[in-house]
Amino acid sequence: MRQILFSGALGLLLSLLGTPLLIKLLARRGYGQYIRDDGPQAHHSKRGTPSMGGIAFILATIVAYAITKVVTSSSPTYSGLLVLFLMAGLGLVGFLDDYIKIIKQRSLGLRAKAKMLGQFTVGIAFAVLSLNFEDHRELTPASTKLSFTQDFGWSIGPVLFVIWALFMILAMSNGVNLTDGLDGLATGASVMVFGAYVFIGVWQYQESCINADTLTNPAACYDVRDPLDLAVVASALMGACFGFLWWNTSPAKIFMGDTGSLALGGALAGLAIASRTELLLAILGGLFVLITLSVVIQVGSFRMTGKRVFRMAPLQHHFELKGWSEVLVVVRFWIIQGMCVIVGLGLFYAGWAARR
To answer: Can you give the residue ranges of every domain in the chain?
Structure first.
């Protein structure tokens, strides 16, 4: 368990100290945020704030994980490395998007097809690789069965699994990207979900089927390949996001940009797939789902009826235009996200208790 504490503390320290260095570097190069003209007018004061801050917590997470393995003399696992690969790969796609926004002063960044191609490439690579690398129990990092609090039903096969995993990765990475519109909103919400996955990983490790002979209720055990290492990755991510939040909260000194939002969404999807909690992620990350749905509803309503449901989508901007302050929106949305995590963990525990 000291791996979890060490990776979290190190991720926090590296991000907390590394982010201001990144701020100075980006500011010196003039890599400031480009603000949309059609957004809330209050946001125009943020023009020029350094972006691409996701670099800080991506590097902090990877370095914290690596040092933890060295210091604790433990070996990295395929599950942990694949989640880090997904995070870093999508972070690279986001970095290219941010770079084009800043250098060319084009608010849309990468062309839609190019951005989608990058996400597809990384997502498919993760999905295919996650069905390999069997351990001695013939478990791979991912399973071809659907899962809620654990696997259920029949295998959907490798082809459908890749499509399903890709859908999850795209949905969650773009969901976090849509949420990242106010200072600290996406970062704080992500911290809560990563904290939930620390708990889930520890619980699955303690109730692992590999220890079935010593469990009071072997029927409720979990068949997850590397639950403890997934908790280590989640802890490093939680700590790194906490450190970044110190500089990203209102008034933000730096924005995570697509570099950070795509990476965080990928990490969440990867953790859900590898921990066999795929459908549960929709509840644990309920705020991201809610904000994504607001965009879907807004676009759908406008195309079908010519009318808008919200003053502006994503949802957080609707409340800004209603007169709520940015801090008020962020805090109240954090409360909603906290409730989603509580409900999600309650369902996770209930799933275990029901099998006792």
So the answer is: 2-141+150-279
